[in-house]
Design a protein that fits this description.
single chain; about 100 residues; mainly alpha; 5 helices
Amino acid sequence: MPDDLLETWAVCLWCLQAALEANVSVKERERLDKFLKSLAAKIYQFLGLAQEEFASENMKIIFDQLNDRFAKRLGVRGDIIWKNFLNFTERQALSIG
């Protein structure tokens, strides 16, 4: 995948993970989780990237840059966003086959 497309998708995936980490009420958390986890799974399948591509150095650099710029202002932890992203992509890879 060309770098500019990877960067675009990385921003989308980072935003999904940041939203999943947002500090919201229990009711809102349930609503967000249901919608965002389903959306993330669809995006993962659409992209068709291997686990190694999701966990690539380029992806990590983009996530780190987004974390540096936005995580603190949004009240989320960048290290948790990356960790949860990797866990999610691993689970998706296992569920696909």
